[in-house]
Amino acid sequence: MPKRILIALLLFSGPLFAQTKAIRAGHLIDPASGTVADNQVIVVQGGKITAVGANVPVPAGAEVIDLSNAWVMPGLMDAHTHITYGVAPGPFALIDNYLSEGSGLRALHGARNAKDVLEAGFTAVKDIGNDANYAAVDLRRAIERGWVPGPSMLTTGKIIAAFGGQSNGVPPELGPYWRFEYIDADTPDEIRKAVRQNIYYGANAIKLVADNNRYVYSEAEIRAAAEEAHAAGVTLAVHVQGGQAARNVILGGADSIEHGFGLSDELLTLMKEKGTVLAGTEFPAAHFKAMQYGADGGAKLAAQIVDRLRRAYRIGVKLVFSTDTVVELPGENRGEMALDYLDGWIKAGIPPKDILKCMTTNVAELFQWKGKRGAIATGEAADIIAMPANPLENIQALRKVQFVMKDGKIVKK
Amino acid sequence: MIRRLLVLLFLCAGTVAAQTTAIRAGNLIDPATGAVSKNQIILIKDGKIAEVGASVKIPAGAPVVDLSNAWVMPGLMDAHTHMTLGSPGELFLEGEYLKSSSAMRALNGLRNAQAALMAGFTALKDIGNDANYTAIDIRRAIGRGWFAGPTMLTTGKIIAPFGGQSHGIPPEMGPFWRFEYQDADTPDEVRKAVRQNIYYGANAIKLVADNSAYIYSEEEIRAAVSEAHRAGITVGVHVMGGQAARNVILGGADSVEHGFDLSDELLQLMKEKGTVLVGTDFPYEHLKAMGTAGGILPPAEVSSKMILDRLRRAHKMGVKLAFGTDVIMELPGKSRADMMLDYLAVWTEAGVPPADILKAITTNVAELFGWKGKRGAIATGEAADIIATPANPLEDIQALRKVQFVMKDGKVVKK
What we know:
The structure holds two protein chains of two kinds.
Chain A: H1 2-13, E1 21-30, E2 35-45, E3 48-53, E4 63-74, E5 76-81, H2 103-120, E6 122-127, H3 135-144, E7 152-155, E8 159-161, E9 182-184, H4 188-200, E10 206-209, H5 219-231, E11 236-240, H6 243-252, E12 256-259, H7 265-274, E13 277-279, H8 285-290, H9 299-315, E14 319-320, H10 334-340, H11 342-347, H12 352-358, H13 361-366, E15 384-387, E16 403-406, E17 409-412
Parallel strand pairs in A: 1-4, 5-6, 6-7, 8-9, 8-10, 10-11, 11-12, 12-13, 13-14
Antiparallel strand pairs in A: 1-2, 2-3, 4-15, 15-16, 16-17
Chain B: H1 2-13, E1 21-30, E2 35-45, E3 48-53, E4 64-74, E5 76-81, E6 87-88, H2 93-99, H3 102-119, E7 121-126, H4 134-143, E8 151-154, E9 158-160, E10 181-183, H5 187-199, E11 205-208, H6 218-230, E12 235-239, H7 242-250, E13 255-258, H8 264-273, E14 276-278, H9 284-290, H10 300-317, E15 329-330, H11 336-342, H12 344-349, H13 354-360, H14 363-368, E16 386-389, E17 405-408, E18 411-414
Helix pairs in contact in B: 3-4, 3-11, 5-6, 6-7, 7-8, 9-10
C-alpha cells in the first residue's frame, strides 16, 4: 500500500522516474490506420517511447507492466474543454458564475477536473477559454511543474470577441463585466493586440467568437487573428455556427471551427477544401436538457447536431472529438461527461475506428504535435491508455479505461 | 490496487460512507495529558468518533483498521502556515507578487496542503500572504470535497500599517503590497479591514504590529479584537517584543505570532492574560536559506539563538504554546510537510519534553482555534482526525516524521 500512495504522491512532487518501463500490450491499436498489432512490447524511458514492436527485448531491470489481455492505444484528446468552468444544472447563463468563483477557486476547480479527465484516459485537452483571469494557463503551468496531475494542455486564455463577449443584457452601470473572461476587439488592429495580450499572459492557442452577436467578424478580422496567431506559432479556433460568419472564418484562415451547428453542405465542402478542422462539440441531449437549453430543452438542436456530424463525416471534413461541458451533471465527473459525447458520434453512424482517430491522431495534428504526441511510436511522448474490451468493436469500451500513463508516469493502474 | 485508487477517488468525490469503521489502536495517546492507553477500540461513524475504549464492541461487518502495533493519536495541527507562498531561496516577498498570480498561488497552496495532510497535519491556520484570498479558495475547495486536505483557518489579507510588510517600494509602483495586505492606520480602519476580510471569507484575523517604523497601539489592537470576537473568530498578531508586544497582549489578542524578542516580563504577562504563543521556532537551516532579506532580518546565527532561548524561557514559565511553523520558502528535495516537521528539532533543543510538544501540536492548537470538544482529541463526538506512527513519539518526537496512517473526518487518506 505505501508503494501505491507513493505513486499518488509523486504526481504532486514531480520527480521523474528515470527507470525504464516496458509495457506488454496484448492488442496495440494504431488509431491513425485503425489497425491492431498483437503482443507488442513498448519500451518507455525518460517520459518517451523508445521502442515498439513484437520482437523488442525487455531491457534488463525494466519495470514490466502487463497489459497482455488489454487493448492499448495512445491517450485520448479533447479539442474543446472549459476545464475551470462548471455550474450546477439549471437555466444556463455564462456570466452567472463570475459572482460565485474567483480566479483562485476557478484554478482549483480546473485542477479537480483535470485530474478526473486524466484518470478517464484524456492525456491532452485544449482549454478554449472562459477561465476567469487566465486560470487555465496557470493550471497548465502547475501541471507542467508536477504540482498537480493533469493532461497536457493547450490554453487560449481570454476569448476574443466583439463588444460584450458572449454576455447579454448586462446593465450599463456594471461596466464591461464580461472582461473577466473576454477581450473586446472590434477592428482588425484590436484583434491583433488582443492576440498579443493573450500570448503575453501565456496562451498557446487562440480562440475567437465570430457570431454570438448581431454583427459577425469579417474575413479581414479573422485573417488578422490567424496571421498574428500563426506568426507566434499557435493555432486559431473560432466559435461560429454557420452562414456568412462561417464563410468568413473559413476564408480568413482559421485552423478550426468550434461548434458549427448550422453548417451547410456547401460550407462543409469549403472547409474540406481549405483544410479547416471541425471541432463540432456534439452535445448529448441529456447535457442540453440539464442546461434547460431553449423551449424544448435542446432536443431539436441535439438532433440537428447529429445530422451536421453525419454530413460532415460523409463529405470528408477533418473531424476532431470535442466536448464543451459547462454544466455539471449530478453523479458524473468531468471525464465521464466528456465520454457522454460519444453518443452523438454513434448516432451519426461514425465507425469506431474513425471516432478513435478523431480522438487521437486528428486532435494531435490540430494541436501541431505530429511526431510528438498522439501515436505509440518511437520518439513520441508516452501517453498511453488501456482497457479490457476492444473499442474498435464497441467505442463505449473507452468508458472503462483501466490504465493511464502520462509522460511515462503511471497515473492509473 | 484498484481498491486503493478507489480510496483516493472517494476523497475527491466527497462521498461519505455512513457505515461504522473500527480502529484497533495498540497504543492510544491522549496528548492533553500525555497518557497512553493500551489496546483501545475507536469506532467512527459519519466522520466522527462514536466510541472509544478497551471493551468497546465492534459492530458486525464494520471494516477494521488494524493499528495494534502502532501509536495512535489525534491529527497534528500547525497554527502558522503560508500554504500558498513558496519562494525559492533568499526571501524577497514582493518579488513573488510578480511571479505568481492568485490562481497559481491557489494551485501551489493546494499542493502544499495535500503534502501536509499526507504527513499527518489534519488542521492548520493559513496566516495570510495568500494573494487575493486564495487560501480561502483552497479551504472552500477542500470543503466541497474536490480534494482531500486539512481543515483550515484562513486569515485572508494581513492587516498592517501603511505598506504592509514591504520595504522600499518605489512610489511609482503605487500600493503594490495590497496584493496581500490591507493598509489600516487608525482603529476605524482596522475595524473596516477586519470586516473586509470576513466578507471575503476569512475565519481568523491576522495583524502585523511591529514591522514598520511605527507600531500598533493598544487601542488599535483592541479594535481588531473586539471586531473579530464579535464575529466569533480569533486574532493572531505578528509582533517581536517590547512595547508593541505589550500593546498586543493588553489589547486582547488571542495569540502572539513569532515573539522572538519577548522578555520574561512580557511572557509572564502573556501567561496571566492567557495569550497563546505561536513562536514559529525556525530551524537554523531555514533561517540561513532565507537570508536577511537585504539586511532587514537579523543573521541566522543571531535569530536562531534568540528563538531557542525564548522558547526555553516561555516553556519554563508556563506560557501556553502552540506549534506554528511559518515556512515560506522551498528547500530542494523537501516537501512543505518535511519542512514543517523540521521545526520539531528546535523544540527538542529548547528542552521541551515530547509530551509537551505533542500537546502543543494538537490540544493547544485546537483550543486556540476554538475547537474544544470538536477537534484535537480522540473522544466521543470529536471529528475523526486520527494519525498513527510505528514508533512512540512520547519517547522520541521525531517519530512524527513517520506517520503511516492518516484519517481525515472519518475517511482514510493514507494507510
